[in-house]
Design brief:
Largest sheet: 6 strands, parallel
Distance between the termini: 54 Å
Strand content: 15-25%
Shape: elongated
Helix content: 25-40%
Number of helices: 20
Structural class: alpha/beta
Strand order of the largest sheet: 3-2-1-15-16-17
């Protein structure tokens, strides 16, 4: 059973990262099943400071939840060698119940594919008397197929010249048909055996379990003629002998369709949709053979179970979320656009931080919070509530943070200021990086908008980047897929925000939302520090009024 993924939104902040880590720990203790905290984006400087402070590794980065071939229960078919006889390959198909077999070299290189269709075509097309030599069939394969014994000759040698002759006539007639290097199938007639050797046959097959005389053995050795003794009769030998042909003679080598474990299942499905092949080989990054995947395997992909924390918007979720099975959501934001195909555990409370809810869940289940976990949870609350300054902060958030600070052995005020300073080091960072530190997108009817927030304890830093940020969002808006872009430049200490905006109609929208004159792409918003509670609701209310007035 695959582990459950616990993950936050695409632009992870301290709450998103810490809540994922701590809730994964709680779920693992409660269920005994592995829960893995992950992140859908890069760790910002503030969060990195917190992780370093409490000695925690960042969660594993997960770029997508789209299932890949590595998630498919493909078959670890060992494969066969190119030297294997058709008979042995056929038996392998029966034993493994698979009709497409990889032909693999000694170092796991894929040399070709061998299918049931190849066997059918080989026999139905009809083989001439030279097929064994053309295929350079080994004596080892001949002995195995005939169920016999190599009486004279080298088992590792190959039959490379001559045709197959069934010696049913008397020696006088045989002389007209036998040529040098031919393989002769005959019975226990001494004169026929002697004639074959004298005609410089390459190999004689003596059937019916007849003993081979010393004279015939000696003469064969002297002339370089191999002898195979078999209990089969002449007819059975003639019928079976083509089964000794090695797989390499008829296997498919060119135009092989192969895939990688990292290939997306949807891409693979599209590739094989119009093909009639049932099985396809999988190769690793070093082109080594791994296993075989069938079209049926692609239909039976086990969905990845996922718990979302600190968001419930589809646009904010890790890519491929619709391909996964969301089993829980723990959040403190508005109900968004994400849908599930079955009832799930959804805990959404109007609190200042998801970590506060996670703290409640620890208490409700009677699970002790260790100092490290307490430090992570407390940091998340301090970050999301801006040290209790945000209007989203509740008494429950504050009480939880103070209790967690005691468990973690930290001073909440000093720790918060250290966090903010770590995250406020804006100098030397480009606008693209800054806008993606903490950005969330929203859908309002047919319009999409994104709101980013950059926080600092230094107003001079914010003043420096403001004109650069305005130029940047104006430049990238046309290719962003958004109707409007907003960036909150928030001074945590002064509790003020300069809102930088771009997009058609945004200036009118700002006047409607905040009833104040706007500068050229910038509006000062004293007392506004919360995107969730102060800015986004005001924007949505203004958009609603705008549509009503236009209608």
């Amino acid at each position: 059973m695959k582990p459950v993924i616990v993950i936050g939104h695409r632009m992870p902040d301290t709450d998103s990262i810490c809540s994922a880590i701590c809730y994964a720990r709680l779920k693992q203790k409660l269920t005994g099943r592995e829960h893995v905290p992950c992140r859908a984006g890069q760790v910002n400087p503030e969060t990195q400071y917190v992780l370093d402070r409490f000695g925690v590794e960042p969660p594993r980065y997960l770029s997508s939840l789209h299932p890949r071939l590595a998630d498919v229960q493909y078959r670890a078919v060992e494969g066969i060698t190119s030297e294997m006889s058709l008979r042995r390959a056929w038996q392998y198909m029966i034993d493994t119940n698979i009709h497409t077999i990889p032909v693999v070299g000694g170092d796991r290189e894929l040399e070709g594919l061998f299918t049931l269709s190849d066997i059918v075509r080989f026999y139905m097309e009809g083989q001439d008397a030279n097929s064994l030599a053309t295929a350079r069939t080994s004596y080892r394969n001949l002995v195995d197929v005939l169920g016999g014994e190599l009486v004279v000759g080298d088992i590792d040698a190959r039959f490379e010249k001559g045709k197959v002759v069934v010696a049913a006539a008397n020696p006088d007639v045989m002389e007209e048909h036998i040529e040098e290097n031919d393989l002769i199938i005959l019975g226990n007639r001494y004169e026929s055996q002697l004639c074959s050797i004298e005609m410089k046959a390459g190999c004689i097959v003596i059937g019916l379990g007849a003993p081979v005389s010393r004279t015939i053995k000696k003469l064969a050795e002297e002339s370089g003629c191999a002898i195979i003794a078999t209990p089969m009769d002449t007819y059975a030998c003639a019928k079976a002998i083509d089964q000794a042909v090695p797989v390499e003679h008829i296997m498919k080598r060119d135009g092989l369709v192969t895939f990688r474990p990292d290939d997306l299942v949807e891409d693979v499905k599209r590739s094989v949709a119009k093909k009639r092949i049932r099985y396809y080989p999988i190769l690793d990054d070093e082109d080594k053979y791994v296993g075989m995947v069938s079209q049926r395997n692609l239909l039976d992909v086990e969905k990845q179970e996922v718990i979302l924390v600190d968001h419930n918007e589809r646009d904010q979720a890790v890519e491929g979320i619709l391909s996964a099975q969301v089993t829980e959501i723990i959040d403190h934001h508005r109900i968004g656009t994400l849908e599930t195909n079955r009832p799930i555990y959804f805990r959404n409370q109007p609190l200042g931080c998801t970590a506060t809810i996670v703290t409640q869940l620890y208490r409700e289940h009677g699970v002790e919070i260790d100092p490290q976990t307490a430090g992570l949870l407390c940091s998340a609350i301090l970050s999301d509530t801006l040290l209790f300054r945000s209007p989203t902060c509740t008494a429950i958030d504050r009480a939880a943070a103070e209790e967690l600070a005691q468990i973690a052995g930290i001073d909440a005020n000093a720790h918060a200021m250290a966090m903010f300073r770590a995250g406020s080091q804006l100098g030397g960072r480009d606008m693209e990086e800054l806008i993606h530190i903490d950005q969330k997108s929203y859908q309002f009817h047919k319009r999409r908008l994104a709101v980013a927030q950059v926080t600092s304890v230094d107003q001079q830093e914010l003043d420096t980047i403001r004109p650069q940020m305005l130029d940047y969002i104006r430049e990238v808006l046309p290719g962003s897929g958004m109707s409007m872009l907003f960036v909150m430049l928030t001074n945590i200490i002064e509790e003020t925000t300069d809102l930088v905006f771009a997009g058609e109609g945004t200036a009118d929208l700002m006047r409607l939302a905040f009833q104040k004159d706007c500068g050229d792409g910038v509006v000062a918003l004293p007392g506004v520090v919360s995107r969730k509670k102060q800015l986004v609701p005001a924007l949505f209310a203004a958009l609603e009024r705008e549509e009503i007035e236009e209608g």
